[in-house]
Structures are given as C-alpha cells and as structure tokens.
C-alpha cells in the first residue's frame, strides 16, 4: 500500500469498483427509495395500494371475472339462471354493437360509413406519424378531399346513393362527425380569433373580444338548444337547414372561443424579439406568424389545445338533449329494450361507452405528450 | 440650452472626412426626425447622413435614444416627424416601402433573436426563401457560405439553444448577410455576451467593415470604434451631442457631456 505519512501522495494501484449495496439498486432499492423512504411515505403507499385495490378489484370482477360472455337474450344475464353473481352482460353489447356504431343508419347502407371510417384511418394515421413523407399531400387529402368525399358518402343523393337523413345517423358515427369537425374547424378559427384579439386594429380586436366572450359566457347546452329549437324560429318560413349542421356550427364556434384563449396564451409567451427578428428580415405579417410565431406558440400550448380537444370530444354527448343520439345516447336508448333487460344491463352499457370514450381521449393525450417531446428542440430562449 | 443647440448643429454637419456627395452615395438620410413615446420626447431633431460604405459607431448613456434611432431606420420603431430616406426610399406608412427597406437593411440584436424552433441553417435560409423567393438549394449554398465566413459551418444542423452566446450572435450576423443587405444595423451586438466571446463577434464585424459594408453600430466597444469607424456619434437625451472621426473624438472631445461619458467608460 502507499505510504500515507507524507503529505505528497501518488496512487500506485487502481481502486477496484465494488458493487453498490443491494439496498440501493434493483427492485428492492427502487421500492425503498420511492415507496418506503419514510414513515409518512410508507403510510401513503399502503393507503394507495388499498385504494387501487378497492377500485380496480370490483371493476375487474365486474368486467371479466363475473361477466357473461355468450347468450341470446336477457336470460343469459340473470343471476338465477347463471347460478352466481353476474357482472357485465357482454352479449347485450355484442347484439347492440352495430347500433352503437351506426345508430339507425340503414343496414344495407352501412358499408358507406365503413368506407368513411376506413378512409379516415388511412389518412390520419400517416398524418400523425412524423416520419411518413408527403405530409403536404396527406394534409390536403385529409382536410380538403376527405370531408367532401365523406359528406357525399354519408349523406348520399349522388352517384345513385340513396339519401340517408342525418336524423337516422347515430352512435359513434355522430360522436366522431361532431368531434372531428369541431376539432379541425375550431383550431384555425381559434387561431384567427387569438390573432384578432391581439391585433392593433381596434375594430378587429373588439369583434374578436365580443365573439370570444360571448361564446365562453354561455353554456354549451344553451348553445345546442338555441341551435336546434330557437334558430328555426328566427329563420324565414321555408328555410331550414339540417339539425346536425346547426349543432356542428354551434359546437365549432363554442370550442373555437376556448381555443382562441389557449392560443392567445401561447402567443403571449413569445418574446418581442422574435417578432422583431422576423420583421427585420423582411418577413410579412402572415409569413412571420406562420413561420416564426405560431409554430412556437402552438408548441407551447399543445397541452391546452389537446385539453380543449378532449373536452370537445366528451361534450358531444350533450347533443342527446336536442334529440340526437351519439354513442352515449344510443347506449342509453338501448336500455328500454326488454329483450336484454337485466340488472347489469345499464352498468354494462355505460362501461362500454366509458371504455370507448377513454380510448379516444387517452389516445389524444398520449399523442400530445409524444408531440411535445418530438418538437422540443432542447433549449429555451 | 444654447450650448446644447450649438453642439447639435455642429454635430449635424457633414462628416469631416470629405466625400464626393451625390445622391447615389447617400445610404441613409435622416432629416429633422422626432419621436415620442406617448408624451415622452425620445428623439429630438435628429439629422444624420450616412454615406455608402461608411462605418458609424453610436455611443451614449443608456436611455439616450441610440437604439431607438437605429430601430427607426428599419421601422421597428415609428417616427412621428421629419423624414428618413434609406437607399433612396422614404419611410412612410406604406407597407410596400417598409418591406423594401427591410429587405436591404440587415439588423443584429443584443439578444440575437434567432428562431429557436429552426436549425441554424433554417434560420439562415428562411428569409432568402420566403422574402427573396430563392430556390432552397441556392439559399442553402449561400447560407453555408456565410456560416463559413463567421466560422461555424459545422453547427449548421444544430438548434440555436445548443450554441454559445458568441456563436449565436455570429449566426445572427450570418443570417442577416444571407439577405445580401446594403446596410447593416447593429444594436449593442456584444452587450449580452461573456467577455471571452466578445472578440469572436467583433472579429466578424471588423471583417465586414473591411469589405466596405455600410454599418451603423450602437456599441460601447471603443476599441472597435477606433479600429473601424469613420465617425463616432455621441448621443444624450435624445439628441446627437457630438460627432467626429474617432481619433479627435477620443483624444479631444468638445462637449462636456462627451468628456464625462468618455471618462466614465474609459477609466473605470
């Protein structure tokens, strides 16, 4: 060993690397550090485990363990026939599945809805994956061609397709039509309103403020009532336009007001220097907004934007009160069918609807996190 | 008061270095320009003529209006009275003329103002592509040329946040040069930099000056002023108090306020 009596010291042998103590590495180490690091932490961990157990255990029991998987009518889902506690009645969902998806859309025309679903999936998936090329063409198809094709396919009346009144639409179809239209239309309108509210032109600013504050000040239910009940009273005799169309416009304007405020939050976070840098280079107003300001501002408020999207998606269920049947409405209306009446029918229906909504909303949420990471260029300034 | 007026008049005169004055030689002509922020009179009767190829350093205490003055030249600030003619175009509310002037006038800011969501190369090619309508390939070649000139071609694919302050400022200079400007404005380009990075930026600016770029530079780098300026302008309280060639300006300042200012920044 080295001589330590002297002040000068030169290491002559390499120190060996020893394994870290078991208590700090691996699973046990992780648990020690994160779950049981102190007495309060241990208590919280135990309460958490108990809470998770008392929520998820009954849910799993209901949905899977005690569930009935096959059957033709209510008899399959009654406790006295099964001879045990009965959870979810899945054959009921299976029997009603087409209704939940298409509503009262005529059976022989449902292939049209399927084509629309398929086209949408084929266009949105490559759009959402950043590495897939030809984004411009893809976007053009998705935002211009698809809505036109979808409109004529769903409504009919051209190329020998029979007309299907929107009052016959229902289920997930209505939910998606309202949500997708609302989402794609409210973002650009919201951006324009946000820019308008920050404009130097007093009239533009005033109109934007009035619009935003009006729509944010009224509940969505009021908007829907106005659109479906009041609006026809104000229109001249003989002028009608489709109820779904009125609801779409109402929902879009409503959420665009919220979107405007979210986007404005992002715009306010962009330093003045970014505007000046762009202006000094000779960029015009719209070039500056499109190339410099909005990409940064929108990136900052992705969580807020997606939050508004998710809110809008779930708010589509409110169309039930103006007599339209979205997914939830369709599920509820199926409860009146005596063929499947059983104690667990409504629970099963609601669970199914909740699961569908959750999948869509959770998907949006995860995608927004992914985009945030993807767009983060590793710095703030 | 009388003393101030006299100084202003003396300062407003033509540069002492005699040049052949014809209208095509004038890069910037500012006449009786006034500006207010609300009620506050920030720029008072500014008269300034900048010849092509001239390098002017503007100094003065903070709040003296020197930044505001050069920001009026590309309309980042609006003036309320008097006229500014840049490269033969008078600045008015006409957006077309403002665009035209901004295309010919490059500007470098204290805080760089690079676009953080774009790579260095994209920062440099953005304006040539969108404003000059240049093909992408050509814009990239030009950008690489100027990035090599400021000695950071290897950073082209990085984002501004990954670069040091000095590197960012050099990118900002390259970004302006990509527009092939006739005039460059520098608004305290080294004030936000760590001391060891100031030199790398000043070196680039000296290089530009040697190539004959018309430059207006707000800075307190007096070494730079001595080395490259044709003229040094001292501003205080919104007016041009004194201007002269660097040698007499530093060795023999005339106005009391210039003397005070120079003594404070040179011997602290």
TrEMBL record, chain A:
One cellular component (GO) term of this entry: ATP-binding cassette (ABC) transporter complex
An example Gene Ontology biological process: amino acid transport
A single GO molecular function term of this UniProt record: transmembrane transporter activity
Pfam families: BPD_transp_1
Keywords: Cell membrane, Membrane, Transmembrane, Transmembrane helix, Transport
Membrane topology: Multi-pass membrane protein
Residue stretches making up the ABC transmembrane type-1 domain: 172-369
Transmembrane regions listed in the UniProt entry: 42-64, 115-133, 140-163, 169-193, 214-235, 247-267, 288-313, 350-371
PANTHER family: INNER MEMBRANE AMINO-ACID ABC TRANSPORTER PERMEASE PROTEIN YHDY (PTHR30614:SF41), MEMBRANE COMPONENT OF AMINO ACID ABC TRANSPORTER (PTHR30614)
Assigned protein family: Belongs to the binding-protein-dependent transport system permease family. HisMQ subfamily.
The protein's name: ABC transporter permease subunit
UniProtKB/TrEMBL annotation, chain B:
Keywords from the UniProt entry: ATP-binding, Nucleotide-binding, Transport
GO molecular function: ABC-type amino acid transporter activity; ATP binding; ATP hydrolysis activity
Positions of the ABC transporter domain: 28-262
Family: Belongs to the ABC transporter superfamily.
Record-given protein name: ATP-binding cassette domain-containing protein
Species this chain originates from: Stappia sediminis
